[in-house]
Specification:
The protein is α/β, with parallel strands linked by helices and 280 residues long. It is 48% helix and 15% strand. The protein has 3 domains: 62 residues, no CATH class; 127 residues, 3-Layer(aba) Sandwich (Trna Endonuclease, Chain: A, domain 1); 56 residues. The protein has a 5-stranded mixed beta sheet with strand order 3-4-5-6-7, with helices on both faces. It has a two-stranded antiparallel sheet with strand order 1-2. The longest helix has 16 residues.
């Protein structure tokens, strides 16, 4: 029996290279099974002891991109979320869009009075039955996790708001919930505290079935940083215009002209955006 090749994760820890896990991530992007199998075989033949997961991702991404840019775009979602930085504002706007699509009325960066002090809430989401006080923790590196200090701090703010603004008539008769979103992961202690304190913690791969990755794929609300037909500079210009989603480019194609994308390339960008949003 051959000994497993140990690769280096973004956290610095070593783990055995898992062909099945790589294939699963490729299939989630929409890649055909035969394409995923071919890429896994190539990568498996190139993996060496200590190779980083970032290097493996880059090789798999480049191979998939030659077959299908839209599939490669969805495969790169984790990196695309990181590329929304350096500020956390685009990530907050993405979360607001996801909640809005789920039927909530949204207020963004709103100041609310607690019983003791005022607090700025990243996203306030309201429907007929529920008020969601949402905080967004954006990280510029996929190796950075949100530790237990994050839910501890946000929970204390939420309790102050429950004793203050959430007692107002507009919110008093509704269910109050505290949600925390991150583009990376929560530590085990953070997740355990969240469960105990009845907070809702949504990270890259948690909770199962409703993780951030699954939520974005389900709604088709992929960030524009998934689009390989746009340069990083063009993506930066669009983000500065408060454009975050590939879907927004489809709705307002004139945005591409505004950031000086040529007519020929605009058609390619729109085609890629359409296919990513529709799962094509």
């Amino acid at each position: 029996m051959n000994q497993a090749t140990l690769i280096t994760k973004s956290s610095g820890l070593r783990a055995a290279f898992d062909e099945a896990k790589l294939k699963e991530s490729l299939l989630r992007s929409g890649a055909q099974p035969e394409v995923a199998d071919a890429i896994v075989r190539q990568i498996a033949g190139q993996v060496y002891e200590g190779m980083s997961t970032k290097q493996i991702f880059r090789r798999a991404y480049n191979m998939l991109r030659k077959k299908s840019r839209p599939h490669a775009g969805r495969y790169s979602l984790k990196q695309a979320l990181k590329d929304l930085g350096p500020t956390g504002f685009p990530f907050e706007r993405l979360m607001a869009q996801l909640l809005s699509t789920d039927g909530y009325q949204i207020m963004h960066s709103v100041w609310m009075a607690g019983a003791c002090i005022r607090h700025e809430v990243d996203v306030l989401a309201v429907n007929r039955h529920k008020v969601m006080v949402c905080e967004c923790k954006f990280h510029n590196s996929n190796s950075l996790d949100s530790d237990v200090k994050v839910p501890l701090y946000i929970h204390s703010r939420f309790r102050d708001l429950e004793a203050g603004a959430l007692q107002q008539d507009d919110y008093a008769g509704k269910q109050h919930e505290c949600w925390i979103f991150t583009n990376t992961r929560f530590t085990d202690d953070a997740l355990n505290y969240g469960r105990c304190a009845q907070l809702h913690l949504v990270g890259w791969n948690t909770p199962p079935g409703d993780s951030l990755r699954e939520w974005i794929d389900r709604q088709g609300l992929h960030p524009l940083t998934c689009l390989s037909t746009l340069t990083r500079y063009e993506q930066k210009l669009l983000l500065e215009e408060n454009v975050v989603l590939a879907k927004e480019i489809l709705a307002f194609p004139g945005l591409l002209e505004k950031v000086h994308v040529s007519a020929e390339r605009r058609a390619k960008v729109l085609q890629e955006a359409q296919q990513i949003c529709e799962g094509g």
